[in-house]
Amino acid sequence: MQLAAAAADHIRLAASSGQLDLARWQFGITTVYHYFFVPLTIGLAGLVAVLQTAWVRTNKPVYLKATKFWGKLFLINIAMGVVTGIVQEFQFGMNWSAYSRFVGDVFGAPLAMEALLAFFFESTFVGLWIFGWDKLPKRLHLACIWLVFIGTMLSAYFILAANSFMQHPVGYAIDHATGRARLTSITEVLFQETAVTVAFHTLTACFLTGAAFMMGISAYHLARKRHVAVMRTSLRLSLVVAVIFGIGTAVSGDSLGKVMFRQQPMKMASAEALWETQCPAPFSVFAYGNVAKGHNSVELSVPGVLSFLSDSDFSSCVPGINETNHAEQQKFGPGDYKPNIPVAFWGFRLMIGFGMVSLAIGAVGLWLTRKRFWLSERLRAQRGDPDAVPLLALTKDRALGERLSPWFWRISLLTMLLPLFANSFGWIFTETGRQPWVVYGLFRTEDAVSPGVSFGEVLTSLVVLTALYGILAVIEVRLLIKYAKAGPPELSERDLHPPTRIGGPPSLPGPRAGGGDADRDEDRDDEDADRPLAIAY
Amino acid sequence: MHLYDWWFVIIAVLWVGYFFLEGFDFGIGILTKLLARDRAEKRVLINTIGPVWDGNEVWLLTAGGATFAAFPEWYATLFSGFYLPLLIILVCLIIRGVAFEYRAKRSGESWQRGWEEAIFWCSLLPAVLWGVAFGNIVRGVKLDRQHEYVGNFLDLLNIYSILGGVVTLLLFTMHGAVFAGLKTDGAIRVRSRRVSLISGSLGAMAALAFLIWTQFDHGTAAGFALLIVAALALIAALGCVHAGREGWAFTLSGTAIAAAVAMLFVSLHPDVMPSTLNPAWSLTVSNASSTHYTLVIMTWAACVMVPIVLAYQAWSYWVFRRRISTRDIPASA
């Protein structure tokens, strides 16, 4: 009997730890997946808004074509971002009810504000933007895409503030009666250093992601000498954005690193596989070690650099994993406070690596396609033709030849994937690096799962969502490829002449144009009733 | 009235907004099979909600987020307790959203047919399941001392909650048909009347049975008043459909849904999720709510933002106010 009871206990324990693992896998899969679409959406929204602004200000059709082309790819993306976001909103309650009870008083507020301020904004104005081409005056329609863009950034900010509370809890007190977190200052939660820094890092990375996407597809067409006018413009825009925001990502990443060295020394020690405290500490380029014994067997490192990264001084001490673990045991009681070291170590490196390579390729591209700087008259003259593929000028008087140019375009095409990998590894690093905590120093992941949800239920949702996401990924990527390959649309007269008032007729030149009296406007509306919708699902 | 009582009202308002708006979205999705006779008519229906369905769905996300912020215990118990039904709803909302956006992006027959099937089923299932879920919330579920749901999936399927599912299905179908009458033109507009009348009559009977049952179980005066409002609005809506007063019909069918949802919330108060195991273990507005400070912050956010949201959402409906008919549908895709 006792044996059976012990066995039953054992099974229950195994199932509950299995449930924890599955819930963690589910959160990881759904969140990483969701985050493929988010940065692309934010980045592309901004780029499309810039292109459409150029169209409204200059009336050059090339900008309208570019807006429509990138806008379509943006819409294919935002659709996936929106629908996968629904799961994000509810899975805290589904799989992590104990967590939701513990932090709800603090964590719920930014989530609700995100919905109220950002989601309504994005969704309403994206609808107006999609269907408003032939209904809204030019400037009002332009305002819609800017509002969508602002909405996506607001949304990012609120959820990053909520995540920052998990990384570095502030503005709360632990309630004596319930033992749960209680909000004491919303401004601290929303505007703490961690939130502001991480928002800066994340948003710059989003623009780098969008720019790399634009760069890759522009390069694809330019290599084939197709849609040259639109793709030239897009390429230049994306290269400038990639370089500016690539540098911004690096700089903000550096400040975020410094914040994390102070707030979560364990995460940063793990990021470096720095087992013992060192003064000065080296930056590890490569390491292979034994996690159980707590040391590296092979290591390649640059002396002093980690000290500099942690607080801008080449000689300062950086606490190692073993010492930090010991310090946390003193503080939080016995236990193992180490995250998964190889995941943190490689996640950190791949994030930086992929990000830096995208920035470097952007910089090289910007140099090769430069328009004026250090360029001979001969090459500058060849640049002048807007319908020619830009020459790739290596030095003042020499362009890349027939053999090397295609390689530049190929590498640029592949670059579009690199920031996506960097983003994913960054999140995998920062979220697994915080383990075993779900809220750093306050609440452990193992205590956060829903006690009432069974192993089978989590398994079901994990399998269903993973399968669904897999199928949708195939559909989405194929659709993106189809529309990316198709290139910009041909413009009609109606596209070029949007109405001058809401729901009015197109402002076509000729006899129909002009103000006219109210009666005639009414007539025209009736005529327009026969006109099919410019955009229909 | 405490601040958490007001928040109970705000949550109720968000759900009313959600069911009012996505109610007709679901209805339109269901009608793609019941009302549309060919692909062009299907497209007419889909395009009546094309620009607005996403904004309508955000009411759900806001209701979820606001529940998390104002009643964390309710959020935690509800979504972990109703795990599988919620999963089905989420899966449907994902597929349905993608279906609206992707259906016209390829012209292949099987591609479009596949997404059309998805739009129908993924509108129908949530329309039923929301009714089942709310039926269970009002009826009460097995909550233990820690407010954890200890029942299983089958416990959620009882006659009362299934009746609730039938009610939402029929009312949303009617609401969608009335909306189609308001937003379309041509043959489909004429035919929408018949569907409105049939689904509305059946929906009125089911809704009355469900609401009277609720009234017997909970028996509040305000609930009774709302029951009367819902009943009268439904009957008047049917009358207006018959008389061809489409604007009034839509206002009234919306009023009926709003009154019915409000009645459920009135019957629930002061509980938010009653426990059938022991009334002392029920989640209530006071034991499920956030602290006063959080509620004050959220009150400010809601009071500033909800009117603004309503204003620009209403504006987007105004921009797309024109009726759509098969003549408006471009031939391509």
From TrEMBL, chain B:
Which protein, by its recorded name, is this?
Cytochrome d ubiquinol oxidase subunit II
Q: Does the keyword Iron-sulfur apply?
A: no
| Chief location bin | membrane
- Localization, UniProt: Cell membrane
Q: Which GO terms describe its molecular function?
A: electron transfer activity; metal ion binding; oxidoreductase activity, acting on diphenols and related substances as donors, oxygen as acceptor
UniProt lists the family membership as follows: Belongs to the cytochrome ubiquinol oxidase subunit 2 family.
Q: Which GO terms describe its biological process?
A: aerobic electron transport chain
Q: Report the superkingdom from the record.
A: Bacteria
Chain segments annotated as coiled-coil in the UniProt record:
none
